[in-house]
Amino acid sequence: MNDIRALVRPLEWAKEWEGEYVAETRIGDAIVRAQRDHHGLPNFWWWSPTDDGGPTGAAPTIDAAKAAAQADYADRVLSALTDDALAALRAKMAEGAE
User: Fold this and answer.
1) Cα 53 to the chain's mean position, in Å?
2) Which contiguous run of DSSP H or E holds residue 77?
């Protein structure tokens, strides 16, 4: 495990309705939704738990949108840690990699 984001609990996706998945978190819901663009082509949008407006980003597939939402969520969780806590986690991960 060399990516510190792997320490953050994975989002658990539940299908809300056709084309929409929701993962509940303590800071709000992450959402992935398939929609068609004005050419009728599918787009896969994702919202992070703290976004109140439009989508956070778009991805080429539903799995890519879920992965982007997971990475964003992990980054938001880790941003709450102090630099010393992050350094300690990285050192612990480096020990385990040896």
Assistant:
1) 17
2) helix 62-78
